[in-house]
Amino acid sequence: MKSWIEAFSIIDFISVGILLTAVTLNAFKSIESYVKAYTINSWLLAGLIAVVAVLVGETHLYIAALLTLATKGIIIPLFLRRIVRRMRVTREIQPYISNSLSLAISGILVAVVYASLKEGIFITGFSKNVLQISIAVILISLFVMITRKKALTQAIGLLFMENGLFLAGFSLTFGMPTMIELGVLFDMLMGVIILGIFVIQIKRAFASADLDKLTVLKG
Amino acid sequence: MRVYVLSILIIPLVTAVVCYNITKPRIVGYVSLGGTVALAVAAFPTIAASLSGTVSALDDTFSMDALSGYIMALVIFLSIASAAYSISYLEHEYDAGLTNVRGVRTYYGLLHLFIFTMLLVTMANNLAIMWIGIEATTIVSALLIGLGFHKRPLAVEAAWKYIILCTVGITFALLGTFIAYYASTAVIGTEGALNWTTLRGMAYRMNPETMKLAFIFVLVGYGTKAGLAPVHNWLPDAHSQAPSPISALLSGILLNTAFYGIMRFVSIVEPSTGSDFTGHLLIFFGLVSVGISAIFILVQENYKRLLAYSSIEHMGIISLGIGIGGPVGIYGALLHILNHALSKPLMFFASGKIQSRFGTTNIANVNGVLSSMPLLGTLTFIGALSLSGTPPFNIFVSEFTVLKAGVDRGLWPVVVLFLIFVVIVFYGMLSGFGKMLFGRPGDGTAAQAGHRPGREGAGEWLANTVMIFMAVAVIALGFKVPAIIDETIRTCVQVLGAK
Fold first, then answer.
1. pLDDT digits (tens, 9 = 90+) for B138-160
2. Number of domains forming the structure of chain A
3. Nearest by CB to B160, which of A165, A173, A198?
4. Residue A18 lies inside a defined structural domain of this protein
5. I need a labelling partner for A35 at 20 to 30 A (CA). Which of A29, A182, B256, B313 fits?
6. Nearest to A217 among B128, B181, B237 (CB)
7. Which of residues 238-257 of B touch A (CB under 8 A)?
8. pLDDT in tens, B218-245
């Protein structure tokens, strides 16, 4: 199993998959596809942790993989789908810039990350590429957050960012102790639920969930 | 000892559940006040012990030294003050039909959860658990701002900005924590690699480059939460839209718990990188915060937002104090935390009363508070004088200490800029509140027409007592810092490793 994983550089394949699902956000037009992309992204993240668990053979990594799968891969996507249905949102995402331009900018972001982290100070445990990819995912999701109008897309951008962060943390340290991983995931789960509540509140208060309505408070 | 330590975390949780299940809106407030008093009684032995040594529980998961004890004492003090003030505030809202029984129950339940999360931050020994606590404070307080009770669109807007900006920020702090974990596992392996008690002893052996990167991420993350400019945009919205007792907690202590995270990191980053690196960053962001808030205070037309910008200014001063460093600078910063935690909640409490009386948060529509409401006017006057840094009030003392530290280090550009900004703030604060206090009372009658006199009950009496106590403390601390507080802060300075 181990030699098989190494021979086919499975880890690189999975992390590239994580990057690609983040990039596809720029091309999608409906919120449903955002949720689907997030689900695939989380499954890939859990899969990556599981593969590394096989390589290293540590129990806490298996637990981390299962926890990630349960929260990010199953509970959060189900919750997001419920919100999407409840909102009966217009399916259009309405980005502030065109999809092709935002795809191009994402490409540039990835290039910048690779160029600047080439001579990094890190010796990553299991792959040269994972740290670069995780930082690229974080930047792309931040970019998606600032260029999309719907409140829900901002929340999904935040979730992608957290996946990127987990990947980064994981490539640096082989994961945190299980108790801490559990606490962090719990916080994120609560955060998502509360973001969902607020999305519905915004819709109720402003009769739409577009963020350009939220400009009353300033100065 | 262990029992006492854990009871600090259990009591607020129990109180939250109990408050949520009481259906009588008149009683629930007193139960919540009782809960905070019980918390204070239970926490007293632990805090007292932590001032002279380390107290730990549950296998070093929780560990408290003087600094944790100091911040925890402030959290508990403000919880009591806020719970006492909430009674009359919510009675007023309830009588005016702005909230219902469910809203009141939810409010008190969330209030105690909020207190729990802040206590968790101060007790955590592990830097990642501290992160979990700080993120939890964001989640709970966002609910208090946005849904606490009456559902107003502006509060939802403020809460959304708050939770999105702070969560993004805090996610960066988690990355910083991961990087610090990476640096420390490289030295000592995974056992206790994020425990503050372990890190203190071996901090100088960690890779300085890695720790620099970690500190930048942590500063951005916790700095967002602490309201340091230029990522302060959420703060005026959240603080002005939250119910007044919650604004007091957010401003008086939540910002400080986030800053507490930065202080912990400073003291483990400094030994390997040298104090210049962290110092320069903190001085820079401190000055930017004071400068930006000074400009906004000058042009502000809404008194709750004015108070919120004043919080950014004071967080900037605390950051400057820590950045300038040395025993004097850190002493000044820690004293400033206490002073700000007294003056700002006093002002938010008073402004809540003014708001319910005049029905507006616009400075132009409030006039003659001093002559129409002498007690409230006097308290507001004391608070405004203190916040603007007028001698001989408390904030003047700590600002002066920070300034002295800057002069001692010979940081003249910093000192000059700081003085200019503080003078602008002084003028802005006093001209805004001076107009509200001394203007002719007749001018605002149109706004007062809709006012119905509130119930002069025990709740009102409690709120006034709390405010009078705080005002007395504000004045007393300006004349002399009591020996016990002085001693505590000196111990904290040692904990932070200032030489």
1. 999 999 988 655 567 788 888 98
2. 1
3. A198
4. yes
5. A182
6. B237
7. 240-241
8. 999 999 999 998 888 899 999 988 999 9
Nearest Cα of chain B lies from the Cα of A127 at a distance, in angstroms, of 15
Residues B139, A197: C-beta atoms closer than 8 Å: no
Range(s) of the domain holding residue A195: 2-211
Position B325 confidence tier, pLDDT thresholds 50, 70, 90: confident
How far apart CA A69 and CA A51 sit, in angstroms, is 13
The encoded tokens of residue A141 equal 């999701």
Residue A122 domain-assigned (yes or no): yes
pLDDT in tens, A139-189: 999 998 888 878 888 889 999 999 999 888 888 777 778 888 888 889 889
- Positive or negative, the CA dihedral B474, B478, B483, B488 is positive
Report the alpha-carbon distance of residue A195 to residue A152 in Å, rounded.
Answer: 8
Inter-chain CB proximity A122 and B182 less than 8 Å: yes
pTM to 2 decimals?
0.92
In chain A, the residue whose alpha carbon lies closest to the alpha carbon of B185 is A173
Task: Give the C-alpha separation, B131 to B170, whole Å.
Answer: 8
Chain B from 134 to 173: CB within 8 A of any A CB: 135-136, 138-139, 142-143, 146-147, 151-154, 156-161, 163-164, 167-168, 171
- Cα torsion A141, A144, A146, A149: sign: negative
- Cβ pair A217:B135 closer than 8 A: no
ipTM confidence: 0.90
Residue A216 lies in a domain: no
Q: Residue A173: list chain B partners with CB under 8 A.
A: 178, 181-182, 185
Q: How far is CA B194 from CA A78, B179, B198, B452, in A?
A: 34, 11, 7, 55
Nearest to B178 among A155, A172, A186 (CB): A172
- The C-alpha atoms of residue B393 and residue B387 are separated, in whole angstroms, by 9
A177 touches chain B (CB under 8 A): yes
Please state the length of chain B. 499
Query: Which pLDDT score, from 0 to 100, does residue A171 have?
Result: 80
- Residue A142 in contact with partner chain B when CB distance is under 8 A: yes
CA distance A131 to chain B (A): 12
**DSSP designation for B474:** H
Provide the shortest C-alpha distance from residue B128 to chain A (in Å). 7
Chain Cα centroid distance, residue B437: 26
- Show residues of chain A in contact with B194, CB under 8 Å: 176, 180
Domain extent listing, chain B:
275-499
* HSE toward the beta carbon, residue B301, CA cutoff 13 A: 7
Asked whether the beta carbons of residue B213 and residue A198 sit closer than 8 angstroms, the reply is no
CA distance B237 to B251: 12
Chains A, B: CB contacts under 8 A, how many?
A: 113
Which residue does chain B place closest to A174, by CA atoms? B182
Question: Do the Cβ atoms of B182 and A183 come within 8 Å?
Answer: no
Establish if A218 belongs to a structural domain.
no
What string of H, E and C letters represents the secondary structure of chain A? CHHHHHHCCHHHHHHHHHHHHHHHCCCCCEHHHHHHHHHHHHHHHHHHHHHHHHHHCCHHHHHHHHHHHHHHHHHHHHHHHHHHHHHCCCCECCECCCHHHHHHHHHHHHHHHHHHCCCCCCCCCCCCHHHHHHHHHHHHHHHHHHHECEHHHHHHHHHHHHHHHHHHHHHHHCCCCHHHHHHHHHHHHHHHHHHHHHHHHHHHHHCCCEHHHCCCCCC
What the block records as the tokens of A86 is: 């409840």
